[in-house]
Amino acid sequence: MGFFVRIAHCVEGLIPFTGAVASPSAHTGQAISVRIVAVDLERARVLLAWEGTSQY
């Protein structure tokens, strides 16, 4: 569970709750800064973290 974030057209990533606990809240449609932590091509998944956090 966490936040799903659109990072490009038809590409979404996930910020897990563990990475979002101490992070600011976000609203649907709001632009936020994230960094890519991992990409799993086989499962078509992108793991993200809030920009500026020490998560991962």
Automatic annotation (TrEMBL):
Coiled coil: none annotated. SUPFAM superfamilies: Nucleic acid-binding proteins. Residues 1-51 form the S1 motif domain. GO terms for molecular function: nucleic acid binding. InterPro entries: NA-bd_OB-fold, S1_domain. It comes from the Bacteria. CDD domains: S1_like (cd00164). Transmembrane segments: none annotated. This is S1 motif domain-containing protein. It comes from Streptomyces lucensis JCM 4490.
